[in-house]
# Entry
Amino acid sequence: MWRTRRCNRRHSTGPILLLWLGFAVALPQQGQTRENSANPSFGGLVMSPAFEGEWWLATSSGERRGFLAGYLDCYVDDQRHALNFAKSWVEYETLISRLYEVKANRSLKVGNAIVRFGQQDPRVLSQRRHDGFGEEWWRGDTANARRGFVEGYISCRSEDHTGPQWLETVTFYTKTLDDIYNVDDHNGLDAPEYGGSIAEALVEYRTKRDFTDFPKK
# Structure
């Protein structure tokens, strides 16, 4: 899944339009987010805080929408739930925010909140898996959206306790994917780049040991 390109990149200086399962929305640049390792027990992944209502209301819009993308990429394409999410990211973000405006709902996990709004549609399972969430999405979107995708995808996968485990920090995974996808061509225009989906990359490079084996220029 590795390739070398020599071409003129299209670098985005503004919001990126996402299209997936009927979603269409621009992800804006937002402020920086924080991370600490106070809660290492979440699916084996070192993440904090828990992905519930308080986290949702406190974090940036870009990170929220990245979380939606990552969680649903896993929920539909890996876990094979036949749910269609035909509204825009903005609409789903608004629906979830309104849900969490009620204080009694804030202990509900964001993943459980998201799936409340899906519609049964078996046709989604016939689409190409992880379509739209690969190199171009990762290279083109904001740092907050990329972070949110990692959080959402691993949050979903970690619900299957017999599946893969992620033991590093969110920052490690975002930086690893920045490196293998050669974000902003920081490894050089002709450096090897990972050509698989974000989901495949997260599964393949779960540990620092895995990451040491990836091709270098």
The two ends are 15 Å apart (CA to CA). Confidence is low (pLDDT under 50) at residues 4-44. The chain has one domain: 16-26+39-211. Residues 147 and 175 are 9 Å apart (CA to CA).
